[in-house]
Every structure is written in structure tokens, then in C-alpha cells.
């Protein structure tokens, strides 16, 4: 029996860290691991914002091709970067235990975001730009792309006064010392899947390997929450380029999901919070999404599609 799990991943430092983390969870099982770095379209195109090149699969297509042809066993992704719809032959088999899901403000000097008339905050995620406009109308959002190291270099070079990033990535890359503020999830709701690492595989992956992943890598409580969030996103037909947000966590025995949409100008926030039993995670996501669509989300999505087409 072949007892080596071949792990496909993007080649960025964060992606390699995540793949290495998955390998470290697999290792105690007795199975070996091999990491296979794969370059994606999203890694090559650095000068246009992701929203404009069309988000669908830019960081995953080449990796999924290798899952389909069997040259890797699993692919490791930030759960956040995964499109809500996978190719039919593939599935998500494991989600790692989630750490802090917050966004954080990063700088090399003290920053007061509430007094931000002259602050330039580097970010390119549509959700963060819209939330900045909504909660901190005085700050200026400047588009900063590239991997985390590139973004830090741009901060150091003075292209912005601070960066707005996911805590998870900052922490994994060892940049904790630069965190000047942890922004509460109570109002700055994270992106779907933020802080969680997802493992994707072929539905026909060998049974023993599937069992290893389910037993040693998957964290059931996180998995059920992220599945609720992803059901929400799927019902909106959204990828990572729409300003949707969604965060589920346990409140006692129930999953509580807070999710919604924000208009690109930050003017309108549609937010719904509901809870359900764990067996109903998927239905919870769908229910919340349909409610968001009904109370104004449909209109926001329509406007966003028009604006992205015209950009
Ligand atoms: N969109 C890029 C991306 N994808 C995953 C992470 C960090 C890790 C995570 O959120 O799980 C980041 C960087 C960021 O948003 O700051």
C-alpha cells in the first residue's frame, strides 16, 4: 500500500506554511507526506486587482487539475480563498481548527484608526474596503496586492500607513509584533472561511488516505461552522471578490451564523444572524443567505456585478 500523501499547494510562504502544517498533522498517523508546490494564474498576475481578473479559480485551477489527474492526493488552501463551488469530482475532506478569525491592523508605528483623517490603509479585499468606508469614513483605502511579504515591504516603503489583514496569515508568518489593533468580529465580520485551512481531494481518493485526513486533520467543530458559512456563500453565488462576510461559531450546542453583504461604497450593510443545530449547518447557511438576498442583498449584488463589469 502507498502510504505517502502528496500535498499540492501554492508556492507562497503562507501557502507552504499551511501545507507544512497539514503535513505535521498527518505525520503522527504513520503516513508520509510530500509537498508539491504549484504555480497558479493568481500568483503570476500581480498588477491587476483580483476582483477585476475575475476571481473564479485564479488561485486554484492549476492545483485542481493535478487533483483530477491524480498527480497529487490532496490540495491545501486557505478556506477563505476557495470558491463556493468545486468541480463535481472533488470534495473538501477536512478543515483545520480555526484560530482567531479577526482582521488586524498592521503597522510599523502607532496608529489611531478612529482619528484617521490622513491615514492610508492598504488592502484590496472588497469586503475590507467597504467596511473601512462604512466604519471609518475618514481613512483612505489604498490598493495593496501581493503576498504578505510584498505587502509588508510596501508598508515599510511608505505606500500606506497601515495594512488591514487577516490575523491568521499575519500570525503564521510571524509578524505578530506589527499588530496595532485587533478589530472585533462583532462589527467587522470576517470573510467566509477566514482563519481555517481546508483540504481538498478527489472523491475517489484511496479510502485509507481519506480516513487519515478525517481522523488526524479535520476539526469537526470548525468544519461544521465553515460548512455553514460556505453554504451561505454558495447560495449568493459569490466568490472572494464580492463584499460578503460570514462567521459561524458555537453558542452552546447551536451554531450561530452572522453573515451578510455590504455595498461597495460602504453605505448599506445587510446583516442577518440566526442559529441552528449542527445537523442543520447547510440549511442555516442557505436560510441566512436567502434572508440577506430578500432584505436588500439582491440589489447590492446586482449593483456590484454592474460595477465590476464596467471597471
Ligand atoms: N486573501 C488572501 C489570504 N488568504 C488567506 C489569508 C490569510 C489566512 C486566512 O485568512 O485564513 C490571506 C491574507 C489576508 O486576507 O490577510
TrEMBL record:
E.C. number(s) listed in UniProt: 2.5.1.61
GO molecular function, one term: hydroxymethylbilane synthase activity
Annotated cofactor note: Binds 1 dipyrromethane group covalently.
Family matches, as Gene3D superfamilies: Periplasmic binding protein-like II, Porphobilinogen deaminase, C-terminal domain
Enzyme type, top EC level: transferase
GO biological process, one term: protoporphyrinogen IX biosynthetic process
Positions in coiled-coil regions: none
Alphabetic keyword roster: Porphyrin biosynthesis, Transferase
Domain Porphobilinogen deaminase C-terminal residue range list: 224-293
Modified residues (S-(dipyrrolylmethanemethyl)cysteine): 240
Recorded GO CC terms: cytoplasm
Domain Porphobilinogen deaminase N-terminal residues, every copy: 5-204
Cofactor: dipyrromethane
Pathway it works in: Porphyrin-containing compound metabolism; protoporphyrin-IX biosynthesis; coproporphyrinogen-III from 5-aminolevulinate: step 2/4
Catalytic activity of the protein: 4 porphobilinogen + H2O = hydroxymethylbilane + 4 NH4(+)
Family to which the UniProt record says this protein belongs: Belongs to the HMBS family.
Subunit-structure text: Monomer.
PANTHER family per the UniProt record, alphabetical: PORPHOBILINOGEN DEAMINASE
Cited function: Tetrapolymerization of the monopyrrole PBG into the hydroxymethylbilane pre-uroporphyrinogen in several discrete steps.
Protein name, as recorded: Porphobilinogen deaminase
Gene name per UniProt: hemC
